[in-house]
Amino acid sequence: MKIQASLILMFIFSFFALHQCAKMSVKGIEDSNIVITSNCVQAGCFHIFKKDCWCCPGPDRKCWKDKASCDAICPRPPK
């Protein structure tokens, strides 16, 4: 009896979850308002506990003291 009740409860919960996923608008997720303004990440270069420089992400990490220099040289990620 407990197994049957558990299975029925799981079945109802699965349909509820499926219903909620179907209501979500996939187009709203694809058309995100997030704008990436920089490819550089802030890192600690000169002080251990202070993020005081900007670096290109990746294995060949090149860093600069100011964000503008980093943005000018680091390549943008492909869309």
Automatic annotation (TrEMBL):
**Range of residues in the leader sequence:** 1-21
Q: Which UniProt keywords apply?
A: Disulfide bond, Signal
All copies of the Embryo surrounding factor 1 brassicaceae domain together span 36-74
Q: Which residues cross the membrane?
A: none
Report which superkingdom the organism of origin falls in: Eukaryota
Q: Which family does it belong to?
A: Belongs to the MEG family.
Name the chain's protein.
Embryo surrounding factor 1 brassicaceae domain-containing protein
Which organism was this protein described from?
Brassica napus
